Amino acid sequence: MIDRDGLGSFLRHRRESLQPEDVGLIRGQRRRTTGLRREEVAGLCHMSTDYYARLERGTGPHPSEQMVTSIAQGLHLTLGERDHLFRLAGYTPPQRGTTSEFVSPGLLRILDRLADTPAEIITEVGDTLRQTPLGLALFGDASHRTGPDRSIGYRWFTDPTAREAYPPEEREQLSRVYASGLRQLVALRGPGSRAAELAALLQHNADFRSIWDTQEVGVQPPEVKRFLHPTVGRLALNCQTLLDPDQSHRLLVYTAVPGSDSHQKLHLLSVIGTQTISS
């Protein structure tokens, strides 16, 4: 059963304890509010201000589990705080561990500070969970994907458009990278895992089977990742990875050598990409 008073008090306390910089927002010069404004939190949680305000007052409807998840991420809650929020809302907290899609507040804070950089947070099987605006402009919007298609490794073998973003000379190596990485995950997580499910689905793909049967593991991607963007053309980017060991989430940050052609193209993409997203 939902604890409306407890839920409202908890939401209000968390909102007032956060500052704009904590969640990637800009602090105005005349700001007088303690913590975040309700409309700011509502925007972060993808809901109306009125809906969120009613939850804080204890007069709102019973939020769905999906809505509670959105609130937990918008408020940058820790796993313990997220579980508490779910219990206040009358639900059993989601499972923790490598199958969880709840992004830790530490990774979110870093991602919030990378607004001018292509970056994304992915799961161990390549599901994209969060993207910066420039990451979205570079790779496309991942939020609409569902089911197995959320995994870049799965799409690589089943969706021809997934390979179009990479130069032809890079594709064979990347096929080996995705297949060998999936094989390692199947051995690590076991037969009932998401990795095993994806591997089973991909057995219907001849290209995947031919590489899978070579039994390769540990194949590494190129040090410099090359992309073919439909607007700015070829890009050569370095990729730095930050790992959340508790949930095996990875924050991937893409950078170009200062002064290089790719660096200039990223700057161009930051302008036209934002315009495209806004339109």
Automatic annotation (TrEMBL):
<dbReference type="GO" id="GO:0003677">
    <property type="term" value="F:DNA binding"/>
</dbReference>
<dbReference type="InterPro" id="IPR041413">
    <property type="entry name" value="MLTR_LBD"/>
</dbReference>
<dbReference type="Pfam" id="PF17765">
    <property type="entry name" value="MLTR_LBD"/>
</dbReference>
<feature type="domain" description="HTH cro/C1-type">
    <location>
        <begin position="35"/>
        <end position="82"/>
    </location>
</feature>
<dbReference type="Pfam" id="PF13560">
    <property type="entry name" value="HTH_31"/>
</dbReference>
<protein>
    <submittedName>
        <fullName>Helix-turn-helix domain-containing protein</fullName>
    </submittedName>
</protein>
<dbReference type="InterPro" id="IPR010982">
    <property type="entry name" value="Lambda_DNA-bd_dom_sf"/>
</dbReference>
<dbReference type="InterPro" id="IPR001387">
    <property type="entry name" value="Cro/C1-type_HTH"/>
</dbReference>
